[in-house]
Write a structure and sequence with these properties.
The longest helix is centred in the N-terminal third of the chain and has 41 residues. The protein has 2 domains: about 250 residues, no CATH class; about 90 residues, no CATH class. It is of the alpha+beta class. The protein has 11 helices and 7 strands. Helix 1 crosses helix 3, helix 9 packs antiparallel against helix 10 and helix 9 runs parallel beside helix 11. A 7-stranded antiparallel beta sheet has the order 1-2-3-4-5-6-7.
């Protein structure tokens, strides 16, 4: 059980208010950028004002979740900076309150945000991001996806149902329904697997039923070709994105991909990022405390905010950089996630020691 006393509540109140202010600012900026990004499709199909607003609103939770540790870092620095401007931090230190005690109070406040981040990442983000993706696809008439029946696409006079799209864009459980000019169903082709080999799809485990006035004839074949206007670029829009899955669903999907001999690096990276989010957020809070104390004599609010932005962006760049290295060179995903966290934890410890020894930087 975490004990919270009056001192914790006082520090926590300032930190939480500052964090909410940072999140509100980020939300405004992200909304602007999402609107600019969505405007490229405005007017296409039925993607009008309502569809645009819905898409932007449903996309924001994922964006906020991706920047969560940085927002917590900025919020903690801003909250402690408010106390510093009133000389309250100096008074606390003069009264014998240690840096570690102040950091503990800030981390207790940050814990509430960590819980909020976990809830957002595990519940809101998967639902909202999937709804945004499907809503955009339906509005642009790209296709219609339903969880029980798979993905539906139209190709000229044919309708195609795809049960699953693997990361390498291999299609599973493909059903192709072809109609004549009078809109009567003439053939129904089912394939267990479809792989794109330009300019056609190669089908495996094929069963084709032809319908005419005399009845239905079914033909089975190990392989067949399918020439269609549907390309991997179109199919990729509907592929499962790791950001749209919860940790549990990610883990289950990784096991599923391994059974189908698919690359899982991207999904493992997303999984470990979600698992270690509380730790990375705690490290950001820990880093904010000595960063603020180190600027007590040498800078105002602007300098502290700028320092927070530099630290946050550096963490994001390092974090993404190790992720790209993991995907490029096949490094373990867990190592790619833990290395940035470890580096910034060492930086926080170094700054604590430097500030604790009374040096000014």
């Amino acid at each position: 059980m975490i004990l919270v006393n009056r001192f914790d509540r006082y520090i926590g109140r300032h930190v939480l208010v500052a964090m909410l202010l940072v999140f509100a600012t980020l939300l405004t900026l992200l909304t602007f950028f999402e609107v600019i990004n969505a405007l490229r499709n405005y007017g296409r199909g039925s993607f009008g004002l309502y569809a645009l607003v819905l898409y932007v609103g449903l996309s924001l939770p994922r964006r906020i979740y991706e920047l969560f540790p940085i927002a917590v870092l900025l919020g903690t620095m801003l909250g402690l900076s408010w106390l510093a401007l009133g000389s309250e931090l100096t008074a606390m230190r003069a009264a014998g309150v240690s840096l570690s005690r102040i950091a503990l109070s800030a981390m207790k406040a940050g814990l509430l945000l960590v819980v909020f981040g976990i809830v957002i990442g595990e519940t809101v983000v998967p639902i909202a991001d999937t709804a945004a993706q499907r809503g955009q696809a339906e509005a642009l008439h790209w296709g219609l996806y339903r969880e029980r029946t798979g993905l539906w696409l139209r190709d000229a006079t044919s309708f195609v149902n795809i049960g699953e799209i693997l990361p390498d864009l291999t299609l599973l459980k493909v059903s192709i329904y072809r109609f004549d000019r009078t809109e009567r169903l003439r053939t129904q082709t089912y394939a267990q697997v479809a792989r794109y080999q330009p300019p056609v799809w190669q089908l495996e485990g094929v069963s084709e039923s032809r319908i005419n006035d005399t009845g239905v004839r079914t033909h089975h074949a190990q392989t067949a070709t399918w020439q269609a206007g549907i390309t991997p670029d179109v199919v990729q829009i509907f592929a499962v994105r790791p950001e749209s899955l919860s940790s549990i669903n990610l883990y289950e999907y990784i096991q599923h991909l391994r059974r189908n001999h698919q690359e899982t690096d991207r999904y493992e990276l997303a999984f470990w990022h979600k698992v270690w989010l509380p730790v990375s957020t705690a490290v950001m809070v820990l880093l904010a405390v000595p960063a603020v104390f180190g600027q007590l004599r040498s800078g105002g609010m602007g300098n502290r905010v700028f320092l927070g932005l530099v630290l946050g962006l550096t963490f994001d760049i390092v974090n993404r950089g190790f992720g790209y290295l993991c995907l490029l060179y096949g490094l373990p995903a867990l190592m790619a996630v833990l290395t940035p966290i470890g580096l910034f934890l060492l930086l926080a410890v170094y700054l604590f020691r430097r500030v604790g020894l009374g040096h000014n930087w």
